[in-house]
């Protein structure tokens, strides 16, 4: 497995590069948002408000403590948009490069680049990934922006200028799974309008599949040749979208505050849109404060699972969970190996998945504990909020502005941890290699 | 690993034996509790009430839909006591025998019996386990019953007869981790009385360690010679008791409805007692309906983890969780093997632990979903209730009687599943042996 490859020109400590880049972008964004020109009201925004908004934007989360439409000026909103774009582009390229770097180092077969025989990641690879992400981003965002602009102009009496600004902002916010919107009630005015909700859904799903999957889909549409990662990601995406839509549509079917007033097709559209959001875009076309407990609980689970690796989605990633699912399948069938789509998933990957999932649970429970201590808000809403922050979703039952300054710092920490934690954890873990000469004798505690 | 041993005189399908025995005991108990002599009021108890109470007793859970002290006659209470004793003795012996059977079959070293060289479980082993469990049960229950009887007689103006009946009932209920009490407010009259709370705590902890651990502790007090299972169980028990006491004491320190009125020592006693209950006894000396959100959340986690394997405790068992913890440690340290106390935990055990933990999460979430759908009760209380039922704890925020007949069936199913699920699952899994000749090529999806 090429243990002797010592020439890695780009990454030495990939995890550090990523964390530093995001912290720097967040800091710059905070300073810019504190400028008086960014704020619509008098003076500049307070530090905590600017920090929270910049972190939420650069981590493409979308939680807000102020009304994006009313609190910020157009230059302020443009800063938010730039932070979203930098954050989304950054996480997509860096995560892809880390995956590429690790697969080379591990000697794993990869289809990410044509030059699969070279063993180290060179500048050529970096250029190829940057160009690929850039092209996909520009193409998808432009197409969605055009569709949205036409719709806003045609149906909502916007001027061409306003329609174009709204179209661009929401296309970028959707593709990067950010969930920021330029309306005071997010997208609640558009529940029932498929010409707004569907393009946004499409942008969210494409961004959330992740760069490695997109590249493979662009290269070939022969499912037989897809890598295990692509198959698992697509399978889980379809399962969660279909299952989520059915569940949420049924849970809100008769709720007068959400889907109640709509005809069956409108209900299905609304259910679909809110099944897309937890993976992990965070727009809302209804008020989650009046959604049913079933919807909130189902949404919490969908948010925690999240989207695809090395894309703009957050959460613990679909592959993490489907690997654990196949562990159960192997266990129940009595197989020695964990098998998925005729591929053996090795213990290393299984252990990474366990580690990421359990530490994710710990982060969400820990954050919930601290916020429960800091505030008197209902447990259900706090759990929803911390999951939303950690999975960088941005959905809220409406408690974000009530959570107080210390609570906002907790959410900032969760957003940062959720955005960078899993990827840096896995890369750090995968780079560690420690072979013990001596194997301890076996012990077998009773389980269950 | 002795594949040819075909002489298992006692167990052919251990999981079926256990499930059948518990269902039968529950059915008999239901019929007996429906008799008019069992009920204090007019007529016999309704079917659902009898079924719920009998299941709760035989699964040693302790959830109640009626006031045990007022609703049932002394003969009715004696039936409940008998069901608790049958259930506790049954699960302890059957789980121990299954563990013994599996360890023999797997060729693992075991210290449960002296005759470690024989490979199949014979009648001699069965007799040895039955006698061991019987002796431990009688000795612990008698000792605790005497202490409680003296205290009830001395301090609470009971007659000798009442004191003895109360002493016996609560000793049996404690050792078997059942949580049933003969006072309308459970043990709320005894918050602050260490002479009642401490003996009960001791009985709970001993019963919850599990028979294999108790046997090993009785055989030798040389920690060096303890099995990995015993070390892990003791470590987790101490960690959870100390950590749980600190957490709950602090969370309730100033709560006027719970620890507020007591001096620091009384607060510590109350915190300790309610840190013991989630593992998984289910007595309460305060009203969980007025406990803080922190306490409820912490208690949910403790309940889910539960106690030791092959004892009277419920939950997913402490070893299940500490194995997952050591997986994270191994992953973070970059070790190839999962190591605990200089023993290598093999992948088979790790996969069992993942399977049990994830299916447990699925059961609790599923139950919570259904109950949320069936009732309008707060999410927090429903999650507490389903965890309590599944982990056979019996703590409640007070919603059990309000949950309705369909909801009671859900809780009955959760209690049964929680009592028998993990153990039968693991035994069924461990008995499957399927070696594939052909190994699939490796695939490595991205994680996180
Ligand atoms: K988001
Ligand atoms: K119990």
Written overview of the protein:
Helices cover 63% and strands 2% of the residues of chain A. Chain A is mainly alpha-helical. Chain A has one domain (14-431). The first copy, chain A, has a two-stranded antiparallel ribbon with strand order 1-2. Mean pLDDT of chain A is 86; it is low at 1-11 and 107-118. The interface between A and B is large, with 86 and 86 residues. β3 (442-443) of chain A pairs parallel with β2 of chain B, so a sheet runs across the interface. The site of one potassium ion has 12 residues of chain A, from α10.
Core attributes:
448 residues, 63% helix, homodimer, binds potassium ion, 3 strands, globular, mainly alpha, disordered N terminus
Give a topology summary.
Two copies of one chain form a homodimer.
Chain A (H helix, E strand, L loop, with lengths): L13 H21 L12 H12 L9 H4 L2 H33 L16 H33 L4 H16 L18 H16 L1 H9 L8 H25 L11 H18 L11 H13 L12 H16 L4 E3 L2 E3 L1 H28 L4 H12 L13 H28 L10 E2 L5
Helix pairs in contact in A: 1-2, 1-4, 1-15, 2-4, 2-15, 4-5, 4-6, 4-15, 5-6, 5-7, 6-7, 7-10, 8-9, 9-10, 9-11, 10-11, 11-14, 12-13, 13-14, 13-15, 14-15
């Amino acid at each position: 497995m090429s243990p002797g490859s010592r020439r890695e020109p780009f990454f030495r400590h990939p995890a550090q590069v990523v964390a530093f880049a995001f912290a720097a972008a967040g800091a710059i964004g905070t300073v810019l948002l504190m400028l008086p020109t960014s704020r619509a009201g008098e003076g500049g925004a307070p530090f905590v408000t600017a920090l929270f908004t910049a972190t939420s934007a650069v981590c493409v989360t979308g939680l807000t403590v102020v009304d994006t439409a009313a609190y910020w000026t157009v230059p302020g909103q443009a800063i938010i948009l730039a932070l979203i774009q930098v954050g989304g582009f950054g996480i997509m390229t860096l995560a892809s490069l880390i995956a590429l770097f690790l697969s080379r180092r591990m000697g794993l077969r990869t289809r990410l680049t044509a030059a699969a025989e070279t063993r180290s990641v060179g500048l050529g690879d970096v250029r190829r990934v940057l160009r690929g992400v850039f092209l996909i981003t520009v193409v998808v965002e432009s197409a969605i922006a055009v569709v949205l602009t036409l719709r806003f102009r045609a149906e909502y009496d916007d001027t061409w200028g306003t329609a174009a600004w709204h179209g661009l902002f929401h296309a970028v916010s959707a593709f990067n799974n950010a969930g920021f919107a330029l309306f005071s009630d997010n997208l609640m005015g558009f529940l029932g309008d498929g010409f707004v909700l569907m393009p946004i859904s499409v942008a969210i799903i494409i961004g959330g599949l992740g760069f490695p999957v997109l590249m493979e889909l662009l290269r070939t549409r022969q499912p037989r040749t897809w890598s295990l990662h692509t198959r698992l990601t697509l399978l889980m995406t379809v399962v969660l979208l279909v299952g989520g839509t059915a569940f949420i549509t049924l849970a809100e079917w008769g709720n007068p505050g959400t889907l109640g007033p709509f005809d069956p097709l409108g209900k299905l559209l609304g259910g679909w849109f809110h099944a897309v959001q937890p993976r992990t875009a965070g727009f809302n076309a209804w008020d989650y404060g009046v959604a049913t407990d079933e919807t909130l609980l189902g949404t919490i689970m969908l948010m925690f699972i999240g989207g695809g690796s090395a894309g703009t989605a957050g959460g613990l990633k679909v592959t993490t969970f489907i690997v654990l699912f196949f562990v159960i399948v192997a266990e129940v069938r009595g197989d020695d190996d964990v098998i998925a789509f005729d591929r053996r998933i090795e213990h290393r990957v299984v252990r990474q998945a366990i580690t990421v999932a359990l530490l994710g649970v710990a982060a969400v429970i820990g954050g919930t504990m601290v916020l429960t201590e800091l505030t008197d808000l209902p447990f259900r809403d706090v759990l929803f909020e911390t999951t939303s922050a950690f999975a960088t979703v941005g959905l809220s039952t409406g408690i974000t502005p009530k959570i107080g300054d210390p609570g906002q710092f907790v959410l900032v920490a969760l957003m940062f941890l959720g955005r960078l934690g899993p990827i840096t954890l896995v890369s750090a873990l995968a780079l560690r290699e420690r072979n013990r000469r001596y194997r301890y004798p076996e012990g077998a505690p009773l389980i269950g």
